[in-house]
Here is the input.
Amino acid sequence: GIPHATQINITLLRQHACNMLHATHKQWVQILELQSLRQGDILHASIIKGASYTWNSIVKAIDNLRMGFQV
Here is the structure.
């Protein structure tokens, strides 16, 4: 049901955030960072008006994502 889908979504967002922290050689990571990451890392990012859906989704879920990461 819905709670299961929400957990799957959070899991996918964590995978994206992990890639942004550790797989900086990936082209999609470089593009998102150039377009949206002003300074610092993904765990300290903020929502940007006009940014991609993927970016803003990761940022919106940042509190959930922080629980699984240590920087």
Notes: The chain is about 60% helix and 0% strand.
